[in-house]
Amino acid sequence: MSASVAETAAAPTVGLAAGRGVWVVLPTYNERENLEPIAAAILAALPEASLLVVDDRSPDGTGELADTIAAREARVSVLHRPAKQGLGAAYRDGFRWVLERPETRAVVQMDADFSHDPATLPRMLAPLMGNADLVLGTRYMKGGSTVGWPWYRKLISRGGTIFARTVLMLPYRDLTGGFKAWRRELIDAIRLRETSGSGYGFQIETTWWAHRRGASIVQVPITFRERVAGSSKMSGGIVREAMLLVLRLRWNAIRDALRAGR
User: Fold this and answer.
1) What HEC string does the chain produce?
2) What's the pTM value of the predicted model, to 2 decimals?
3) Mean pLDDT estimate for the chain
4) What is the pLDDT of residue 191?
5) Residue 183 in contact with residue 128, Cβ under 8 Å?
6) 13 burial level (CB within 10 Å; 0-12, 13-18, 19+)
7) Residue 80 or residue 257, greater confidence
8) Which residue in 20, 217, 250, 260 is a FRET match for 128, CA 20 to 30 A apart?
């Protein structure tokens, strides 16, 4: 089930939209320049939310800075991972960590580089106060946009979404984006342990499993901006992995349907 929410719609400032019961999961690798301002902006946007920084042993000291922030701010926690193992693995570990907290009602995933505007967080969470199970921050719909990207990055991102939409027969207009808000029960229900993707692949895969579960999925337009500081983690390997993953998901679905029809 798919729906959209106009960008001009005002978000409530209570409940989930204020961050009550919400954990924001923020993977980091060499994001020292961005971490302190992004953490402050997230906590300001959601005055009742908590923030989990998932650091992959950043050589630039991001993890140590995260510990310093957590020591003075009770709403911030840090999960240290032993090495860089990919965005998907960081999110899987972060999701499991926050789901161990009984107070968790919703989980937001977003980038640490200000590509995702923290001011959009209440609007992302508002649909979860209704019937939505998953909210997709969407660049490629009315009201959404991408700012500061060169043409080839836009081509890769939009092409990836078109490819995944076509092969997987999904209605959503931005399958490669990483700004999402999840209802706790949906993360518990999807096959998180079976996901294997990183980067674009992880984003496509989790939305695929949510759709297959019959989740109510809402698309909210966002403006995506090129990172403020640091360097992009995008690589050709991440793109290839995502394409192969999409093909594997479709093949597995066809195989399962054939088995069920026997």
Assistant:
1) CEEECCCCCCCCCCHHHHCCCEEEEEEECCCHHHHHHHHHHHHHHCCCCEEEEEECCCCCCHHHHHHHHHHHCCCEEEEECCCCCCHHHHHHHHHHHHHCCCCCCEEEECCCCCCCCHHHHHHHHHHHHCCCCEEEEECCCCCCEEECCCHHHHHHHHHHHHHHHHHHCCCCCCCCCCCEEEEHHHHHHCCHHHCCCCCHHHHHHHHHHHHHCCCCEEEEECEEECCCCCCCCCCHHHHHHHHHHHHHHHHHHHHHHHHHCC
2) 0.90
3) 90
4) 72
5) yes
6) exposed
7) 80
8) 250
> Residue 221 belongs to a domain with what CATH number?
3.90.550.10
pLDDT attached to residue 8: 38
> Given a cut of 60, is residue 91 above it in pLDDT?
yes
Looking at the domain assignment, is residue 9 inside a domain?
A: yes
Count of structural domains, the chain: 1
Over residues 167-200, the pLDDT tens digits come to 999 999 999 999 999 999 999 988 777 777 776 7
CA-based end-to-end distance of the chain:
28
- How far are the Cα atoms of 49, 68, 182, 259 from residue 104, in angstroms, in the given order? 10, 24, 11, 37
pLDDT at 1: 61
Structure tokens at 13: 């400032």
**185 occurs within a structural domain:** yes
Query: 154 in a domain, yes or no?
Result: yes
* pLDDT at 24 exceeding the cut of 70: yes
Q: Cα separation of 70 and 76, whole Å?
A: 5
Structure tokens at 51: 């923030």
